Here is the input.
Amino acid sequence: MMTDAEIDARLAELGLVLPEPAAPVASYVPVVVSGGFAHVSGQLPFVDGELVRGRLGEDVSLEYGIVAAQACGIMILAQLKTALGSLSRIERIVKLGAFVSSAANFTDQPKVANGASELMAAVLGDAGRHARSAVGVPVLPLGAAVEVDAIAAVRAD
Here is the structure.
């Protein structure tokens, strides 16, 4: 497992700063830790403080969809850090679920999801490699272009 210093160094190398975790937009909690796992509710993409809205294959480019998925991944890490007190408690990102608001003919959901997947590996190394689903949907909360949730195996405090 990586230390906090190693994780902070990787974030710095990538030019990333974890934001304040987003507050829930409905009746749920951002993270539930139970049985050695942290379940992170779906996170929406905020880039430069603005929610990325739209539909891939319609008014959002593949490249910007990848950026949006990365932003979801950054928020997942911010939520985990707040819930766990330290990202060094993450033993492994077990699974990501990526939901991509997609036009009917858009089929590159896996490429969009790579934005979050590659971020996890870049920050956490092998512990960031995970199983994943990438699903196209017609609409997401608040008109978001992408939403990503996560399950992480965590060590006890």
About this structure: The two ends are 14 Å apart (CA to CA). The first strand starts at residue 31 and ends at 34. The domain at 4-154 is CATH 3.30.1330.40 (60s Ribosomal Protein L30; Chain: A;). The beta strands are 31-34, 37-43, 46-47, 50-51, 90-101, 131-137, 146-154.
